[in-house]
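Here is one record:
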Amino acid sequence: MLKHSLIILVFSLVSGSIHAAAAEKAISQQTKGECSPAIIAQGNVSVNCGVSKKALARLQQVVNRSSTNQIAKDAQQDNRLETQETKLEALIKNLQELKESLTKRTDDVAKQAQVKLDDGDFEGAEALFKKSYEQHKASIANQKKAQAIDAIALAKIKDLQLDYLEAISYLQQAVQLDPDNADGWNSLGHLFRRIGELDEAIAAYSKLLGLGKEHNDQEEIAMAYNNMGIVYQTRGDLEKAVEYYQKSLTLEESLGRKVGMANSLGNLANVYRTRGDLEEAVEYYQKALILHESLGHQVGMARDYNNLGVIYKTRGDLDKAIEFYQKALILHESLGDKEGIAVTNNNLGEAYRYRGELDKAVEYYQKALTLDERQGNKEGMSAEYTNLGIIHNTRGDLEKAVKYYQKALTIDESLGHKEGVAINYTNLGFVYKTRGDLGKAIEYYQKALSSFENLSHKVGMAQVYINLGAIYQTSGDLDTASEFYQKSLALNESLGNKEAVANNYTNLGLVYQTNRNLEKAIEYYRKALTLDENLGRKNFMASNYGNLGLVYAQQGNIAQAKLLVRKSIDLYSELGEQVMAKKAQDLLDGLEKNSVHDKKLTGYW
């Protein structure tokens, strides 16, 4: 999928290496009618729904400027990371909605403002509405509804300029003047969600829901359900998110609104993917894809292809993942969507890295980096620097890894991207762990943990706990290691992150194996294996078959050990991981000769 809403973290087992995977989570936006948002691809403009080229070019300038300047307001600094493309789509949608609302007005102010907006003169439109707002304010009380409409228009113009706090102020005035204005409550919910004020967002969407029910407006109700689902998903309350997305989908289906249906299907798919229910996620992404195809919505199709690619990558079916990423790439190239091209190149780099084809991975990361550097997309550059750092880390070139991580860290600090800063603290910690400087590694991991805690970023906290556990395990402090692994497990279970839970089980299995508590080790390895099988993670299955084989060998059950190690060999061979297959074969040969010494039986995998 696209680098659509935020940078998502993908973590590798035990090692603690974190990379900013450019695009694994979609947050759909509620649209009105069957009109797809226009897309700007770094100057290549595809116009839909009456948005002029001048206005689109102005929005491009706004987003480009926002990507190069550090955000000044603390409330905005805490906002979750958005890509240029996400910002553009949101701004385009807001402009379309503003223009649509103006077409329903017959006054001269609305007509003049439309001309200003089409010329990209947002300040001129703002001045017109301010004058009208003040005139209505000075008029008699029955002008309150008109004053509220002007306030909403002013808020949307401020939103186009990325001045979120001023926009919120106007919207709060609007709903105070006219509490029955659904557009005001919906827009207020969007902005509160964007700056991370989730309780306030829920309150605003609840007002929208109440108005929809009061007016029997099924479209408003569906919109409220979908948007509340997004907030609950952001909070990590996935059960609640599914409940609201499903309600929205049911209403959208009854209304025959394909755009709304596709949004809800995509959101449901995202939740199922996060929970590890990959079959259901594929089903919903496929349904969304069919709707996007019927609408001719190529941007939506490209997202669906990328989302499907992510799932197949998670399953370990890298050929299928690459196939979907290539389909997405073709669409982005046909649209001239350079940001989408960069994101998909990055995703292809990820797939090839997972396949062990590091040269190919570097090729795609470099393509993405070149595009992002040309466009001044610093968020994208940071992601690619991080991923290139991981490649050099994997190759053992720690100096180059540090160089790239530091580049990414510098960008994230300049942008005020606290999440990216925390990611690269973690990566630097891993480098120092690899070098054997455990004190320095702990220092960076603690910095990362503090940053993630300040962000209430449970995924990041859970990973740092794993990394700290690995350090204490390396130093022989197994009780402290187990404590950190259990903290990570508790967080991942609360998040419904089955992949990470499986990793936690594996780590705990290794601790118990080292402690000679072999029954407990078997219990945790089997828990991990069950989840890996359900998730289709063949490489992890192969690893845990090997882990179990080692434990049974320690118990003296050589027949069971050989059976499990053969399964490990078969899976590694199927995946083309010849190094690991050879390692497993060497172990099997030792078992066949009954010559594997107990001291060798921990830490192979």
User: Anything to note?
Assistant: Residues 1-49, 67-83, 597-604 have pLDDT under 50 and may be disordered. The first helix runs from residue 53 to 68.
